């Protein structure tokens, strides 16, 4: 019998004017929240760099998002180390 966490959700979204159907285990509300963030970041980057084509815009948005993720990951790791020392 399939575990409840194995349930696949299909969510249709729009990112920077393009439609995508995202299939995965995450709840649709989570997917939509992520999509709103990505769309907002892409539009902000385009506003600052109007000559970027969509591919470069998407790649730079992904690089910025992963950079922020890695900074947060490092920060959490450092906080965990501090807790272990105290």
Describe this structure in words.
The structure is a single chain. By secondary structure, the protein is of the alpha+beta class. It has one domain. It has two helices and two strands; from the N terminus they run ββαα. Helix 1 packs across helix 2. Its main location: cytoplasm. Pfam families: ZapA (PF05164).
Q: What is the CA–CA distance across the termini? A: 45 Å
What order do the helices and strands follow? EEHH
Radius of gyration based on Cα positions? 17 Å
Mean pLDDT: 92
**How many structural domains does the protein architecture include?**
1
- Strand percentage, roughly? 15-25%
Question: What's the shape?
Answer: flat
Helical element count?
A: 2
Task: State the helicity in percent bands.
Answer: 55-70%
Q: Which structural class do the helices and strands define?
A: alpha+beta
Strand arrangement across the biggest beta sheet? 1-2
Give a quick account of the main beta sheet: strands, pairing sense, barrel closure.
2 strands, antiparallel
Ranges where pLDDT stays below 50 over 5 or more residues in a row are: none
Number of strands: 2
